[in-house]
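User: Hey, quick favor. My workstation is busy. Could you predict this chain's structure for me?
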Amino acid sequence: MIRRAALAFLLASVMGGIPFREAARAQPLPSLTQEGLEALTLAKESISLRSVAGPGNRTPDVAGLYRRALIAGGFPPGAIAIARVGDTAYLVFRWAGQTHGLKPLVISGHMDVVAANPADWTRDPFTPIVEEGYLYGRGATDMKLSNALVITALVNLHRHGYRPRRDIVLALSGDEETAMVTSRILAEKLHDAGMVLNIDVGGGTLDEKTGQPLYFVWSGAEKTYADYRLVVTDPGGHSSEPRARNAIDVLARALIRVETHEFTPELNALTRSYFVNAARLSPAPLAAAMRAFAASPGDRKAIATLRAEPSLTGMIGTTCVVTTVRGGHALNALPQRAEANINCRIFPGHSRRDILHELSAAIGDGSVKITDETANSVETDASPLDPVFSSAISEAADAAFPDVPVFPGMSAGASDSMWFRQRGVPSYGASPIFIKASDNFSHGLNERSPLSTITPGMHYFESLIPALSR
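Assistant: No problem, here it is.
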């Protein structure tokens, strides 16, 4: 009776706050264990806390929520530390191992999320909703569901008497999406780690038609993040007296040249492995392009096909896009200044300076000043292909998603892993979230993750964490 009552309470919590007609559409929920329901509830509670940089940042409250969950799971309060840094915070939980002297396993993630304007969303981004088989809300994919899964898995391992040989450290940063100050602090504090398991990166792909798992990719490297500022200045004047040169027009032409510039497509060992393996499981036109590109990265037809797929264009080389534009100072005046930010994700092996020079050459106008404004990024090499990690993650993925192919790849985004790799600590991205490419709205509108990923995600962590903490 107690267990049934607890389950009923959890189900009520999961559906809480949803009008009756929406709750009806949300049924039926996928089969979830009690632990899965606990993870879903924790994810929902954390999504409701607006952990966005700036005024009203509730990242410290997310840290407090996670701390309470760990304590409720039987861990001692003294093992969990929360440190405030400006308007944010970071959390470190250390589960002491049985053997002294072994390097700890660090499980890395972040608690902050990208800003979201409720007026633009179909559903309020900070009111988590379970509907039509998905968890909706800012952080549902990036990455509060992953945090909830790993915390619940740690609690479940503890409940069942697991005792790690080496320390397990859960390190959650509080500004990964912005300044990465806490990310660097954690990498400094945990520079003696033997390995970092970054649950913000990697993950599985679901078939677009059937929704069944296709393959699982773990990440051993990531591209370098960079921001470049383009600035055009001019004396300006009265808008009734147009001149041959207009600062906004000059900037617009420069931005078109950036848009049309194609960086040389290239491969490394990780991306070649990804394309060769993913080709076996992809639709025919895409599969053919993957195989052709893996064989010859200069194949123009293959390049065009891969560049047309947003989830793959970042895998074939450096990408640069304009992300912000500002110009002019008055409605009735010629602009005296126009500027834009170009955000680049640089393929490993190239420096930020290399890309700055290439962009400058592509623009071909010396009056457009370009400067590197990157503040929170470092260039790092790939982590080694560790057979211990490869074996452990293959076994864990198979336990959760039987017979689903597992292979390495490269992350097109930036993460906390860069700060650990900079210090020589191998870091591997291995999120358990399986999602359709068409459902991936991280950093965008109506972010969501399928509830079907929760139960296998729990099994995955409960296999992987013991394997890596021996």
